[in-house]
Amino acid sequence: MNHHHDNDDLRSLIRTVPDYPKPGIMFRDVSTLLLDGAGFRTMIDRMAAMVDSDTKFIAGIEARGFIVAAGLSYALGLGKVMLRKPGKLPGAKIGVDYELEYGSDRLEMHIGHVGAGDKILLVDDLIATGGTALAGLDLIHQAGGIVEQSLFIVDLPDLGGADKLRHSGIKADSLICFDGD
């Protein structure tokens, strides 16, 4: 259940940068929220309260998703899995290629870190079109993990990513929505 209006204190800490990365885009910059120690703690506490109780690991998507995953991991005493960009993992790994608006990208994960049936929470700082989150979902499924829930600081609902996750049968929750982007 999203109670976005309850998080207006956190919303006010997120800076909007107009025309970045291109004209007409309103960039929602969470770095200003991260600068605020009390705001960050409040954000993590509120997100932690939303996490399903039988979650085994938190999977964070590089790079800002690691910040969310680390905070939640500490708050909940759960291990975390890093979904990495190519060329970062030294061990045996699996990967998923996915399309971006311009070009493509790849996420990779170490083999053996997620076991069959492990319940994984997928987190990132922001969900827009959902391409990266869906790639993360695919990667966890390849390893045999189960994802029933995803969690984001910010959702840009007009871009449809959270709805794509919901159509895949996954809860997609966020603290803050910015409509009209």
Number of strands: 9
Indicate the multimeric state. single chain
Please describe the biggest sheet, giving its number of strands, its sense, and whether it closes into a barrel: 5 strands, parallel
Structural class: alpha/beta
Q: Indicate the CATH class.
A: Alpha Beta
What do the pLDDT scores average to?
A: 95
The strands making up the biggest β-sheet line up spatially as 4-3-7-8-9
Q: Please state the second-level CATH architecture.
A: 3-Layer(aba) Sandwich
Task: Report the radius of gyration as a whole number of Å.
Answer: 16 Å
> So what's the overall shape?
globular
Stated plainly, the CATH topology is called Rossmann fold
Give start-end ranges of low-pLDDT stretches.
Answer: none
Q: Tell me the strand percentage band.
A: 25-35%
Number of helical segments with 4 or more residues: 6
Order of helices and strands: HEEHHEHEEEEHEHE
Which range best describes the helical content: under 10%, 10-25%, 25-40%, 40-55%, 55-70% or over 70%?
25-40%
Domain Phosphoribosyltransferase: 46-144
Organism: Sphingorhabdus lutea
Keywords: Cytoplasm, Glycosyltransferase, Purine salvage, Transferase
GO cellular component, one term: cytoplasm
